[in-house]
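Per reviewer request, we include the raw input and output of the structure prediction for the construct analysed in the revised manuscript.
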Amino acid sequence: MEHSSADIGFFLAFILLLIGSGLYRARGVNSEGAYLLAGRNAGFLSLTATLVMTEFNTATLISFASMGYLVGLRALLLPLIFLIGLLFYALTVAKKWKSYNGLSVASFFSERYGRDIGLFASSTLLIAMAGFSGVYVKSLCMLFAPHFPGVSPWLLSAGLVALVLLMTWRGGLVSIIRSDLLSGIVILAFFPVLAFFAANGRRRRL
């Protein structure tokens, strides 16, 4: 697959912007609470952006695109799963969780139901997150593989994981939120451009 210098330049600029933003925001992270919870003072816009971009991941992008190819416009019903789930969370859990002065769901289970249940919750979450992470890395590798045809999938996956760690390792949740916020802005700007070129391409075919 051939790429113009403009394509490569835009991609590199975007990656450098994400890395730079994450490292810049990491300068103020100097405590456990700041690293894990962003100091508990993230604004509404930042929290919304990071939540949306967490759900709008590479695995979701590939699966939704494939369902759109198979069933057409009916695939637009799939986002309702996230909408209903997130609305349910917002109405039933979010306020109570915000008032809970803890670091994780596992710590909540430990305090509420005892150490054994807390360990079980921690193990279950660890296994689930390991599975989710594997899916995300695989889907990210699938998206980038056509652009790096001569690179081993294992090497490409390792490089992508290293890139993500570089963006977020030092700053924790603060860097993650900042990266998601920038990504969300780019996505919002990209959709109208995509719709414009898609409409022009369709008119030309007709």
